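Quick one before lunch.
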Amino acid sequence: MDAGSFPAVTDTRSTTTRNWAGNVVFSAGRLHRPGTVEQLQDLVAGSDRIRALGTGHSFSPVADTTGDLVSVAGLPPRVVVDGALATVTAGMAYVAVTRALHAAGRALPNLGSLPHISVAGACATGTHGSGDANGVLATAVSAVELVTADGSLRTVRRGDPDFPGAAVSVGALGVVAAVTLDTVAAFDIAQWVMLDIPFHGFDALPELLAEGYSVSAFTHWEREVFDQVWLKRRMPADPPEPFWMGGVPATGPRHMTRGEPTGHCTDQLGRPGPWHERLPHFRAGFTPSSGAELQSEYLVPRDRAVAALRAVRAVAARIAPVLLVSEVRSVAADDLWLSAAYGRDSVAVHFTWVPDAAAVAPAVTAVEAALDPFDARPHWGKVFTTPPQRLRELLPRLPAFAELARAADPTGKFGNAMLDRCLPA
Ligand SMILES: Cc1cc2nc3c(=O)[nH]c(=O)nc-3n(C[C@H](O)[C@H](O)[C@H](O)COP(=O)(O)OP(=O)(O)OC[C@H]3O[C@@H](n4cnc5c(N)ncnc54)[C@H](O)[C@@H]3O)c2cc1C
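Model of the flavin-adenine dinucleotide complex:
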C-alpha cells in the first residue's frame, strides 16, 4: 500500500515538523498517523526510511529521519490490566495511562517529571524519575510489541535474548505499537519542598537521596546550596524534621524554575495524594512551560557522585549564566543495554538551559569535561556532544545493540544521522 494514502501532515513549516523545544527541525517530508496497527504495518513495510515520533519532547535529534515520520498516537488507546501486568498502546501519554491504571487500583513504580510524554518515547530514550531503588521507566517494561522492518508484528518479552536491547531501543528496532508494563498496587505519596540545603561539599548527598521514595535536588550553581529539594515519601510517612539536612521547609507551593507559575506543579506541603499526582513534578492539567528551554543530563556511578558534583561545582561560573535550573536525582541500576544506568546505580545530573544553543554550547562542553572523568553517560533524549568513541567505552553493550539493530533492520530504514554517528559500524 502507498504510504502516502494514510493521513499525513505534509506542511514542513508546521510545528509538527519541530520538536517540542523547537531546536530540532525534522528533515522528514511527512508525518503519518495511522489509525490501526494494520495500517502501521503496511506503512512500515512500504517505506524505505521511516522513524517513529512520540510526543517530540526530546532535545536531541534522536527521532529525526530523512524519510518519513510516523506517530502511533492515532492507534486506539487501550490500557488492558491483567493481574500485575498492563498492556498499553505505545503512543499514549503517561497522563492517560496512569489515570487508567489508578482507576484499576494499580500503579507504575515511578514516573518522570513530565507526564505528557509518550510511553514508547520515554522508554526508548531511557527516561527516568528519581529514587535509589527506582530504575529507568523502561525497567517496568515486560514486553514490547513492535512493527519490524518487513511490516510484521513481533513481541519481545523479558527473558528473550533480545529483550535488554528492545526495552530501550532509541527507535532503531522498529515502531513500537504496544508495551506491557509491570504494575504494583496503587499507593499514596506526600511531597515536601525544603529550601536552602547547604552543599557542605556534597558529603551528605547519599543520605539526602535516600531520604525519600523519590528525591530531586535543584540548584542554580550560584550559591553553595540546593535551592530546593523535593522530597516524595510513600505514605504512611513522617514529614521531614524542621531543619532537615540544614534547610527549612517551604511554607507555600514552589516551582523549581524562577518566575514560573507554581500552579503548574504537583501538590506539595506534605498533602498525601495518589502516586500519579505526586511522582511527576508537573500536573497533568497544565502545560508545564512554553518549550523555551534546552536540556542536558548525564548519569554517573552513584559511588562517585559526590566527587562528580564537586567537579561540576568547580565550573559553576561557566554554567550559571545560561542555566534555568539544575536537578540531581538517583536512578537504580538495570540490565538494559542502552540505559544510562546500565549495570550501575547512578546519580543523574541534569541541566535545564536557556533556549539559545550557541550560548549554551560552551557550558555543555564545560559540564562534559568536568563529568567525563566520572564516566558520565548522556541521556539519549537531551543535548550532548559526547564523542561516539567515548560512548562505546561508556556503554559496553552498544556494539551488541548495533548488531541487534542491523539484524532487525538490514537496510537501515529505521536509522538516522544520530544513530549512524553513535552506533558502532
Ligand atoms: C519538560 C520536559 C521534562 C522532561 N523530564 C524528564 C525526566 O524527568 N526524566 C528524563 O529522563 N527525561 C525527561 N525528559 C526527556 C524526555 O522524557 C525524553 O526526551 C523522551 O524521549 C520524550 O518522549 P517522547 O514521546 O516525546 O519521544 P520523542 O522525543 O518523540 O522520541 C524519542 C525517541 O523515541 C522513539 N520513539 C518514540 N515513539 C516510538 C515508538 N512508538 N516506537 C519506537 N520508537 C519510538 C523515537 O524514534 C526517538 O528515538 C523531559 C523532557 C521535557 C521536554
